[in-house]
Specification:
By secondary structure, this protein is α/β, with parallel strands linked by helices. The protein has one domain: Leucine Aminopeptidase, subunit E, domain 1 (3-Layer(aba) Sandwich). Helices cover 40% and strands 22% of the residues. The protein is built from five helices and seven strands; from the N terminus they run βββααββαβαβα. Strands 1-2-7-6-3-5-4 form a seven-stranded mixed beta sheet, with helices on both faces. Strand 4 and strand 5 form a beta hairpin. Helix 3 crosses helix 4 and helix 4 crosses helix 5. The structure holds ligand AR6.
Length: 179
């Protein structure tokens, strides 16, 4: 575990499973369909039960597929967290427009934090968005993620603790180095 202070808040880096976190909210690295998938998305829906999927379906029915870089909120179902914030990271590809993808990845963090603050959340956990199935280069993604959270925490909000819950050593080390 490693932590850094930003104003009145702190960012904590841990290795672990985000579905076990007891923060007010956890963030899901979803896809635009919001219908679940593999990786952390699959783990959250499995652990949280059918309530989360049924709320996701209702959101898609009302507003359509979720664009990359945006976020929506549901309850946490059976999870310890009260809320799940679903965001869609950019898919990294061969002829990627790196500038555009980095703006989208930053937006995932900022929009998730903004939604959390709207609900007066004080603690929130993030996974490493886009660095699994979506193949965003880890070191670049970690730098964007940490910078986005630090920038957000410079402003006034309800959020006092931001956890990065990282699934393996390589990911954990990249985020700690970025901080
Ligand atoms: N807790 C924390 N981190 C986890 C967990 C967990 N339980 N499980 C995996 N990770 P990915 P993406 C890490 O692929 O790249 C899904 O199918 C994983 O090791 O979950 O944004 C969605 O439906 C990696 O470091 O998300 C989308 O289609 C990080 O979470 C697509 O994958 C992100 O890997 C999204 O891809």
């Amino acid at each position: 575990m490693k932590e850094v202070k930003v104003g009145q808040a702190r960012i904590v880096f841990i290795k672990g499973d985000i579905t076990k976190q007891t923060t007010d909210a956890i963030v899901n690295a979803a896809n635009s369909s919001l219908m679940g998938g593999g990786g952390v998305d699959g783990a959250i829906h499995r652990a949280g039960g059918p309530q989360i999927l049924s709320e996701c379906k209702e959101i898609v029915r009302k507003q359509g597929r979720l664009p990359t870089g945006q976020a929506v909120i549901t309850s946490g179902g059976k999870l310890p967290a009260k809320f799940v914030i679903h965001t869609v990271g950019p898919i990294y590809g061969k002829n990627a427009d790196c500038r555009k993808l980095s703006v989208e990845l930053r937006s995932c963090y900022i929009e998730s934090l903004r939604l959390a603050a709207e609900r007066k959340v004080t603690s929130i956990s993030f996974p490493s968005i886009s660095t699994g199935a979506y193949r965003y280069p880890l070191i670049a993604a970690a730098a964007i993620a940490v910078a986005a959270v630090k920038d957000f925490l410079q402003g006034e909000s309800s959020i006092k603790e931001v956890y990065f819950v990282l699934f393996n050593d390589q990911t954990y080390n990249s985020y700690v180095n970025a901080a």
